[in-house]
Design goal:
Elements: H1 2-22, H2 24-34, H3 42-66, E1 69-70, E2 73-74, H4 77-99, H5 119-134
Helix pairs in contact: 1-3, 1-4, 1-5, 3-4, 4-5
Length: 135
């Protein structure tokens, strides 16, 4: 059960990373409009996020599929914790971006299912972080 949960979180991260790559310019624009990242750093920050999403997503799916142990540690636990950490950061970012005033209608730049900034986006990221931790 836990490995399946981690694989599911990994797939969400893979799809998100792919969507960020597919709509890179639009996502950079959204990140700039949130006002949390300096405009000049937005492409670099987004590039780092895409790499993290793809690497952690792939590692989660592969290690969950293998289900093997290494030195007494179940392999998928390592990427699961890293996914949880990334998703906690993204939850905080979504909360701060939504709290920065009137962002009605601004896209979340989430990658999977573009929604306007708000409680839904923050809750979705938080739920994924929780699922990665529970897994």
């Amino acid at each position: 059960m836990s490995s399946a949960l981690i694989a599911a979180v990994g797939l969400v991260l893979l799809f998100s990373g792919a969507a960020h790559l597919r709509h890179f310019a639009a996502t950079v624009h959204s990140v700039r409009s949130h006002g949390l990242v300096p405009a000049g750093l937005a492409p670099s920050v987004l590039s780092a996020l895409v790499v993290a999403e793809v690497v952690l997503g792939a590692a989660s799916v592969v290690t969950a599929a293998l289900g093997a142990d290494l030195l007494g540690v179940t392999l998928w636990r390592v990427p699961a914790l890293a996914c949880a950490a990334l998703l906690v950061v993204l939850t905080a970012y979504a909360h701060l971006a939504a709290a920065r005033g009137s962002h009605d209608g601004l896209p979340c730049a989430c990658g999977v299912g573009e929604a306007p900034l708000g409680a839904w986006v923050t809750g979705r990221a938080g739920l994924l972080a929780l699922l990665a931790l529970v897994g």
